[in-house]
TrEMBL record:
Matches recorded under InterPro entries: AAA+_ATPase, ABC_transporter-like_ATP-bd, ABC_transporter-like_CS, P-loop_NTPase
The organism's taxonomic lineage, starting at the top: Bacteria, Pseudomonadati, Pseudomonadota, Gammaproteobacteria, Alteromonadales
GO MF term (any one): ATP binding
Role this protein plays: Part of the ABC transporter complex HmuTUV involved in hemin import. Responsible for energy coupling to the transport system.
Keywords from the named record: ATP-binding, Nucleotide-binding, Translocase, Transport
Residue ranges occupied by any ABC transporter domain in the UniProt entry: 4-233
Primary gene name: btuD
Top-rank taxon: Bacteria
Protein name: Vitamin B12 import ATP-binding protein BtuD
């Protein structure tokens, strides 16, 4: 089932007219160099940045026609630039985004993936960068937790892996694919080529405000497509059921 259908969606000076769809059960990773337009595309598809032109349909209805409270019950967005909730504890912070009682605030699976149970009593402002990011990812999931359990959540994550250590990066990437397997849709921007190649159903490669390639990672992530997108010479190997991407050398900007 199509959850998001963008047709000719454009943002002045940031995003060229773009046609993309997101189906239920998909985990899509969006890749491209700094400034390629990944955040802009995610914000637009999430209905948080009005497009200059084009049409955005969510569940076959115009996105702008959906009451915000209805939308927020199944669509959540993890941002790269979270503001600091001064002075409050992690428990209080998360409780703003959950309908569950404080005693059952953190579903076990979220704690298994993000490992934040021991941080609940700490002040948000005193966490390390990666701890804070894990708390914010939990916030994003808690906001739509009832929809996640029903397999109908639309989860946007803008660079959720950036500050995580290697174990949490892989645990989160794997968990997002499992959420998609349960019917949810995850749209994730990433600079982690190897992670994205192996933990996504589709990738969108962006360059200069355009989606220039989209499809299954094994089809789309080739030296020929990745080279011009990242201005690097790459080697791609398929070994042990994994895709391995190696940078051979940075190339001159074309
Ligand atoms: N609020 C804004 N107003 C105007 N231009 C913006 C704004 N935010 C981003 N831009 C510009 O839009 C373009 C795309 O930015 P965007 O943040 O979408 O890129 P990105 O691919 O997410 O980059 P990164 O990997 O660095 O996070 C860039 O040229 C950026 O400078």
């Amino acid at each position: 089932m199509k959850r998001v259908t963008a047709t000719g969606v454009r943002v002045d000076d940031r995003l060229s007219p773009t046609d993309v769809t997101v189906k239920s059960g998909e985990c899509i990773h969006v890749l491209g160099e700094n400034g390629a337009g990944k955040s802009t595309l995610l914000l637009t598809l999430a209905g948080l940045l009005p497009p200059s032109s084009g049409s955005l349909m969510i569940d076959a209805a115009p996105a702008h026609s959906m009451p915000p409270a209805v939308f927020a019950a199944f669509r959540s967005f993890h941002t790269q630039h979270a503001s600091d909730p001064f002075g409050i504890s992690v428990r209080e912070y998360l409780s703003f985004f959950s309908t569950a009682a404080v005693s059952t605030l953190l579903p076990g699976v979220i704690n298994d993936v993000l490992d934040i149970g021991h941080l609940l009593g700490r002040r948000v402002s005193e966490l390390s960068g990666g701890e804070r990011q894990r708390v914010d990812i939990a916030r994003t999931l808690l906001q739509v937790w009832p929809a996640i359990r029903e397999g109908r959540a639309l989860i946007f994550m803008d660079e959720p892996f950036s500050s995580l250590d290697i174990r949490h990066k892989y645990k989160l990437a794997n968990y997002l694919t499992s959420l998609a397997s349960a019917g949810n849709s995850c749209i994730v921007s990433s600079h982690e080529l190897n992670l994205s190649a192996n933990y996504s159903h589709r990738v969108w490669l962006m360059r200069q405000g355009q989606v220039v390639h989209q499809g299954a990672p094994e089809k789309v992530m080739t030296p020929e497509t990745l080279g011009p997108v990242f201005h690097c010479d790459m080697r791609v190997e398929h070994a042990r059921n994994m895709i391995e991407i190696h940078v051979i050398q940075p190339a001159a900007k074309q």
